Amino acid sequence: MTPQRNDLCAACLSRPAERLVLAGLRGWLAGYSTGDIACWEAVWNEHAKHLGPQRAKPVMTELSALVRVLCQESQQPVDFYPPCCRGMCRDECLALGMVTGCQMAAWGPARAAACALVGAAGEERVLECGRDYATALAGADLRLGAVGPRLLWQTGFLPPETGPN
Fold it and tell me: Do residues 95 and 25 touch, judged by C-beta distance below 8 A?
């Protein structure tokens, strides 16, 4: 991993909102990959512990929708690391960057990240789910920011020609 990518991972894992989103993405993707409901239960338990059950419900609903659409629209399996991993893979970074872009109303970077994740054909559906998830996170007082859209270019996860907006 390059120093810039190490910095990106450190920034993500140092903030509770980003840690929870990353854990949610990993756990929900693991549930789809393995078919083991225990993965989803662990994600629910973690969200309920940090947010309380009432605030966790809408966040979990939108997380589930986002991951389902990511899996449906992606041209290849969505990559993810195990929950205990301290690094982030490309797809995790792009998904987190897309949701952050949606929450920050940085639509150009959010769209570019969605397209890089699933291709142009599925970009709109993924972006809509990303926007809904970002809104649910904000409703639970989870503000993202450590993976600002510019970092996606600085780390090379998005091509320079798309440029930050």
Answer: yes
Record the tokens describing residue 30, joined without a space: 């693991």
Per-residue pLDDT tens digits for 132-164: 999 999 999 999 985 555 566 566 666 555 555
Alpha carbons 96 and 130: distance in angstroms, whole number: 9
CA distances from 94 to 48, 107, 112 (A): 25, 14, 9
Query: What are the sequence ranges of the domains in the chain?
Result: 3-158
**Amino acid, single-letter form, for residue 144:** L
- Per the CB < 8 A criterion, the answer to whether 95 and 40 are in contact is no
CA distances to 42, 70, 81, 89, 107 from 84, in Å: 13, 22, 8, 13, 31
At 2-30, the pLDDT tens digits run: 556 666 666 667 788 998 999 999 999 99
Cα first-last separation, the chain: 26
Q: Is the CB of residue 160 less than 8 Å from the CB of residue 71?
A: no
Distance between CA 143 and CA 165 in Å, rounded? 20
Cα–Cα distance measured from residue 162 to residue 112, given in angstroms and rounded to the nearest whole number: 7
